[in-house]
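Researcher: I'd like a structural prediction for the single chain below. Treat it as a standalone chain; there are no partners to consider.
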Amino acid sequence: MEKCVIKANKLTKVYKLLAEEIYAVHDVDLEAAEGDFVAIMGPSGSGKTTLLDSLGCLTTITSGSLSILGNDVSKAKENTLVLMRRKSFGFVFQDFLLIPTLTAIENVQLPLLFARIPQQAGQARELLERVGLGKRVNHLPKELSGGEKQRVAIARALITSPKILFADEPTGNLDTKSSEDIFGLLADLNKKDNLTVILTTHNPKLGLRAGRVIYLKDGRIVSRENSSLCF
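Model: Treating it as a single chain, here is the predicted structure.
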């Protein structure tokens, strides 16, 4: 039986704006097993990023329960969440978030510094080779294309050997060919390494290639037919 790595029950995230309460995510029930590849899809403003941030412990939930890797993190303190993010999660973002003054290999090694893990240039180089950048290890971000920057970001996310990879619109700033390549790379990591991948995407063509698709609308999980997406 596959191990459950994420379990959310009535997960809700509310933002308060003056006297108004905005339900970004509302009563979401969700489970993901080890090795799952889950795409979260929905129109702009549907709550995709907020849900991903909640599952990745980048934001605290307002109510409901959330268990990650067997640990109840619903009311965990920030220092506990920091340790979980550093040791168990990898993150990839739409805007790459590379340090412009660091080379590709230095960017990949950066999480090891925060996690207080001895830096291993060999491991970083191997990861860059795996994502197809073996000949670009000493290049600065300004010398890389958008697709290459995202490959560096993926290698950086993998350097701490995470159990779950969270990716927020990882192809959002890329052209069609680069988008397909990056999505294929994530699918390959999921298949060959049994890495659990949870991502958001506005691209239906790519999202439907995931093992499972969750549709959001107004912060709630809905059926594909009610998702307001065009296919």
